[in-house]
Specification:
The chain has one domain. It contains 5 helices and 12 strands.
């Protein structure tokens, strides 16, 4: 499969590229259990992105995401704005690198998008991640909290209290709150935030409105 789109923008240091799903990426996805035949979105409707971001050490890196073609442009624009405000991201790798394991990806504090899986706690319904229309950002600093207040990942327990305390530290700036710039940026492009959910809280999670 040929490259469908390729863009680069380097005037302000932000770099991005957009590809169709090449044979090598397809192999990574299938071998890594993040996509398989029977998933709700065919490969031709997905895009592989390489996007610049600032890591927790203040270095500019290029990460990778796979998203639905319908949201690729908004993700590029959103991450451009996140780059401009120097919002820190621990790392950004495909879930395939973690054998499709949401748990392992979260443990690595990995920012990711496509993962062909069902909704947490509901085996009968596809997650928006399976459609490539959801993204989890810095999941350790922004944990999923159940109705009972349970947090699965021990490293996230210190982030139960949702407040910025030391903004000079990357881990603190990575915390996503309701009125933070990152939340406002995503919402301005029509994305919902899991921190607004009534009963459970998924502070890492943004999904595109259908």
């Amino acid at each position: 499969m040929i490259i469908i789109l390729t863009y680069q923008l380097i005037a302000d240091g932000y770099v991005y590229k957009v590809f169709g799903i090449t044979p090598n990426i397809k192999k990574r996805m299938i071998k890594g259990n993040s996509w398989r035949y029977g998933c709700p979105v065919p490969l031709q409707d997905l895009r592989y992105l390489q996007i610049a971001y600032w890591d927790f050490n203040g270095s500019s890196k290029v990460g990778e995401l796979i998203v639905h073609k319908d949201v690729a442009k908004s993700i590029i624009d959103i991450f451009h704005k996140l780059y401009d405000i120097k919002y820190p991201i621990r790392e950004m790798r495909l879930v395939s690198d973690f054998k499709g394991s949401d748990w392992r990806s979260i443990e690595a504090d990995n920012t990711s998008a496509l993962n062909c899986r069902k909704i947490t706690g509901n085996k009968n319904k596809w997650s928006n991640h399976a459609y490539g229309k959801a993204i989890d950002i810095n999941p350790i600093e922004n944990p999923y909290i159940s109705k009972t207040g349970y947090i699965s990942h021990k490293k996230s327990l210190r982030y139960r209290k949702r407040i910025h305390q030391k903004k000079h530290i990357a881990q603190d700036r990575a915390i996503i709150l309701k009125y933070d710039q990152i939340t406002k940026i995503f919402k301005s492009y029509g994305w919902r935030w899991g921190g607004d959910w009534k009963y459970i809280k998924d502070f890492q999670h943004f999904e595109f409105k259908k």
